[in-house]
Amino acid sequence: MGGVEAVVVIVILLLAAALYATGMPPSAILQLLAGAGLIAVGVVALSAAGPAQAIRSGLRVVPTTTSQT
Question: For the chain, how are helix, strand and coil distributed in percent, rounded to 5?
Fold first, then answer.
């Protein structure tokens, strides 16, 4: 683990401790951190893929509708 990764882990732990100290329930803290982690993974994956592939991946997620006439 490099220095940047260590700083990120420390910041996450400090954020979780601060949220717990303010009275937020642990289950809500875990949900918040899990959601932020999933968003971060998605952003990194899309940025590493390149602009064209990122757009194609994003469009695959958008639901399509078919006309039934």
Answer: 80, 0, 20
Phi and psi, residue 2, nearest 5°: -85, 180
Predicted confidence (pLDDT) per residue in 7-37, tens digit: 777 888 888 899 999 999 999 999 988 888 7
Q: How many domains are there within the chain?
A: 1
**55, 56, 62, 68: CA torsion to nearest 10:** 140
Q: Which residue has the tokens 């932020």?
A: 36
Residue 66 lies in a domain: no
Residue with the two structure tokens 């959601």 = 35
pTM of the model: 0.55
Tokens 């910041």 belong to residue: 11
